[in-house]
């Protein structure tokens, strides 16, 4: 396949020198001294690279590259200049220029830059093909089964198989175990969406957030006038999820007295609201999750053995992300694409050094931590390539196992804004530019986070 390079250089001697230095197989160099000499030329093949002097007789190199991009969206660019400046370098990066070479330069520097551009293009093509294949597979999977747990490791393949199998047995209780942030609720939602219950509600309940005094009223409901403040009839969670799935997250945090009440309902499949003598039969599937060792809790007398067996009819365990490193690139690509679209960024790639850092990180917060690291990187990125400097692991890691780390995006956004403000000496205009948002958007975020 012919590789066409466009060269724009108005100095005849340098133009010839560059042409002579590009001695590569299957490479055709078409040289021009101006935009005018090129614009009416009919090309036999689509150019893959443009090498442009930043100062030409009729248009500057950046403008010419912008025009080329309009016609050849996949073209890469190398800028050469004798007047290097930070302003030009930034403008080049924003346009998608891959390299910036100062005069005078050696032939091997230029050849090395060309090879980098070609390697990057091959990486993008390969990435695009992989992404399309994953997207097609995901669409087929979701059309037939529901939500898929993303990953290519053997562990994730087995989890997806288990999800499909247990989804069809829609009366079976499921226990999902794994560290915090590993995606337990996503698996629960996947099982629900693949089952015959998918048209009914999926109702998630965080057991750590239920005060003991509200357990019965929230789970079983109450009648109007049953107690002070009961101003109307209230359905409990079992009734709300009737016909569907009730997801009990962090079931290991429920105390023994409440465990006994929950066991009775699971055995009888009947509830009666507080203040009512009517019995309501419920057809609710129970899926629960925990990051605790329930067997050890049973030995310590902190969890009921009979409830454990009732909930653990079918067990799915999610290994931590650090034990399935092969899933990290797939998840990174997924989150880069997701947050690029969410934040209207043109970010399409990840520098190899940044990927190496992500591959070697420990991820005490698992997928949730990786997700937040990527979103922050995209918010901080000022080009179309995520680089090591855009990654920040310090806010996501501590020595205690990750339990005390605040992974919320609200916190990360606030910390990012504060750091940008400090770097810009609290100048709002410069801070907004650094964050790649408008000043109005910055004002809204400052108000949202209560930042003076």
Automatic annotation (TrEMBL):
Sigma-54 factor interaction domain span: 149-379
UniProt keyword Zinc-finger present: no
Domain of life: Bacteria
Protein name: Sigma-54-dependent Fis family transcriptional regulator
Pfam families per UniProt: AAA_lid_14, HTH_8, Response_reg, Sigma54_activat
Domain Response regulatory: 4-118
The organism of origin for this protein: Carboxylicivirga sediminis
One GO MF term: ATP binding
Modified residues (4-aspartylphosphate): 53
UniProt KW keywords: ATP-binding, Nucleotide-binding, Phosphoprotein, Transcription, Transcription regulation
């Amino acid at each position: 396949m012919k590789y066409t390079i466009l060269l724009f250089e108005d100095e005849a001697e340098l133009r010839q020198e560059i042409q002579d230095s590009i001695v590569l197989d299957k490479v055709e160099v078409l040289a021009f001294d101006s935009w005018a000499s090129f614009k009416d030329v009919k090309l036999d093949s689509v150019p893959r690279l443009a090498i442009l002097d930043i100062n030409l007789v009729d248009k500057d190199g950046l403008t010419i590259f912008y025009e080329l991009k309009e016609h050849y969206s996949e073209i890469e660019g190398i800028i050469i200049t004798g007047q290097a400046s930070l302003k030009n370098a930034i403008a080049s990066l924003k346009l998608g220029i891959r390299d910036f070479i100062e005069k005078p330069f050696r032939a091997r520097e230029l050849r090395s830059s060309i090879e980098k551009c070609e390697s990057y293009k091959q990486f993008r093509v390969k990435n695009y093909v992989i992404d399309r294949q994953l997207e097609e597979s995901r669409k087929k999977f979701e059309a037939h089964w529901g939500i898929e747990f993303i990953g290519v490791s053997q562990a994730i393949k087995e989890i997806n198989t288990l999800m499909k199998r247990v989804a069809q047995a829609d009366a079976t209780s499921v226990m999902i175990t794994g560290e915090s942030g590993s995606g337990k609720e996503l698996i629960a939602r996947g099982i629900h969406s693949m089952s015959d219950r998918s048209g009914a509600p999926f109702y998630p309940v965080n057991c750590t957030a239920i005060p003991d005094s509200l357990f019965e009223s929230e789970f079983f409901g109450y009648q109007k006038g049953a107690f002070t403040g009961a101003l109307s009839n209230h359905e409990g969670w079992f009734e709300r999820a009737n016909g569907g799935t009730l997801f009990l997250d962090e079931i290991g945090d429920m105390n023994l007295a409440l465990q006994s009440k929950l066991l009775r309902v699971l055995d009888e499949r009947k509830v009666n609201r507080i203040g009512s003598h009517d019995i309501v039969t419920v057809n609710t599937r129970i899926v629960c999750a925990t990051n605790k060792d329930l067997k050890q809790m049973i030995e310590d007398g902190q969890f009921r053995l009979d409830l454990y067996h009732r909930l653990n009819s079918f067990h799915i365990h999610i290994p931590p992300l650090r034990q399935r490193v092969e899933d990290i690139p797939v998840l990174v690509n997924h989150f880069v694409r997701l947050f690029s679209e969410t934040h209207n960024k043109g970010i399409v790639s990840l520098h190899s050094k940044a990927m190496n850092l992500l591959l070697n990180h420990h991820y005490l917060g698992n997928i949730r931590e990786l997700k937040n690291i990527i979103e922050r990187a995209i918010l901080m990125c000022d080009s179309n390539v995520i680089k090591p400097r855009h990654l920040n692991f310090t806010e996501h890691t501590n020595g205690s196992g990750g339990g005390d780390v605040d992974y919320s995006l609200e916190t990360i956004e606030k910390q990012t804004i504060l750091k940008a403000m400090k770097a810009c000496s609290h100048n709002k205009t410069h801070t907004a530019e650094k964050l790649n948002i408008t000043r109005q958007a910055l004002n809204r975020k400052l108000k949202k986070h209560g930042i003076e």
